[in-house]
Amino acid sequence: MTSLTVLGTAAPYPLPDRPCSGYLLQGGGAKVWMDAGPGSLAELLRHTSLDQLDAIWVSHLHLDHVGDVLNAYYALAYGLLPPLVRPLPVYAPAGLGKRLAGFFEQPDAGFVSNVLELRELRDGLTVELGGLQLVSGAVEHGCDAYGLRASAEGRTLAYSGDCEPCPALDELAAGVDLLLCEADSGEASGGHHTPEQAGAVARRTGVRRLVVTHVGPSLTPDAATARAAAVFGGPTACAEVGLTMPW
Ligand SMILES: [Zn+2]
């Protein structure tokens, strides 16, 4: 069974009952924590535990997507949890090890390798986790940033991460069963989608369902979803914390 559970959607900082970006992606017998924004670890723990994950996947190293990798390290290193069979794989853009080690004033980027196994994302990287395939594609966000196309059990899901409309996202999203797309900005500003742009991606790539997420402070999630739906013209939902949907 495939499912997507919403753990957090807020940007650029966590709100009461609304952590920053985080999702539990399940399919093909695998579980992936997709983006680890501040607050999303606590939500993740309502649904699973860190030792049940096959990997963490981080779209880019902005705080609202990566902050809780540090909390995952704290949990695994100091939380008196059952020891992991092996360090937890973390797929993330280059530089995460240095940032995590820097928090502990350690010069060695491998400082966290006792519990986290960092693996660098690159454009086109394909990972198989049991019956779940993840393809990462470099998207336009003004930094080293990735979107994702997941396939399992004959189903497909794409995730924008944070980006402006770009051919790479269109490629990841082409014909998927579910597109999880950010709609951060009320007006086109570069680096992000407006709701209309999110709806337009869904429309031109022929996705079956659109889920709107990462709605920034200039919009409300409901308003963003309505604006995206008007352009898409297909089934459109708002990502709400705690919601689990098949894909
Ligand atoms: Zn963001």
Automatic annotation (TrEMBL):
InterPro entries in UniProt: Metallo-B-lactamas (IPR001279), RibonucZ/Hydroxyglut_hydro (IPR036866)
The record places domain Metallo-beta-lactamase at 19-192
Q: Name one GO molecular function term.
A: 3'-tRNA processing endoribonuclease activity
> PANTHER family from the entry?
METALLO-HYDROLASE YHFI-RELATED, ZINC PHOSPHODIESTERASE ELAC PROTEIN 1
Provide the protein name. Beta-lactamase domain protein
Q: What species is given as this protein's source?
A: Kribbella flavida (strain DSM 17836 / JCM 10339 / NBRC 14399)
